[in-house]
TrEMBL record:
Family: Belongs to the RqcP family.
Organism: Desulforudis audaxviator (strain MP104C)
Domain RNA-binding S4 as annotated: residue spans: 1-62
Gene name in the database record: rqcP
HAMAP family with a match to the protein in the record: RqcP
The protein, known as: RQC P-site tRNA stabilizing factor
C-alpha cells in the first residue's frame, strides 16, 4: 500500500492530499529513509512523521484498504522515539 494512503486509512492524517503534501515536504521516513507519497509500506516498517514540533513514530502492523474509524488504530503501533519496545 502507498504511504499516503496508509496515513489516510489509519487516520494518522485526515486527508490523502495532506498526507501527500507532508511526504513531498520531506517530513516522513520509512525505516530511516526519506519517503515519498508513493513509497510502499509493509507490516513491520517503522515510520516517522514530523508534524510541527512533534515526531510521530509508529510500526505498521497490517494493511487494510477500508477500516472503520474505531479500528484505524489497529493498523499501527505507536513507538517511543522510533524504538521498538518489545512485543505488544
Amino acid at each position: 500500500m502507498r504511504l499516503d494512503k496508509f496515513l489516510k486509512v489509519s487516520r494518522l492524517i485526515k486527508r490523502r492530499a495532506l498526507a501527500k503534501e507532508v511526504c513531498d515536504q520531506g517530513l516522513v521516513t520509512v525505516n530511516g529513509r526519506l519517503a515519498k507519497a508513493g513509497t510502499p509500506v509493509n507490516p513491520g516498517d517503522i515510520v516517522r512523521v514530523q508534524l510541527g514540533s512533534r515526531n510521530l513514530y509508529f510500526e505498521v502492523l497490517r494493511l487494510d484498504e477500508h477500516v472503520p474509524a474505531g479500528s484505524a488504530a489497529d493498523l499501527y503501533r505507536p513507538l517511543d522515539n522510533g524504538k521498538v519496545s518489545g512485543p505488544g
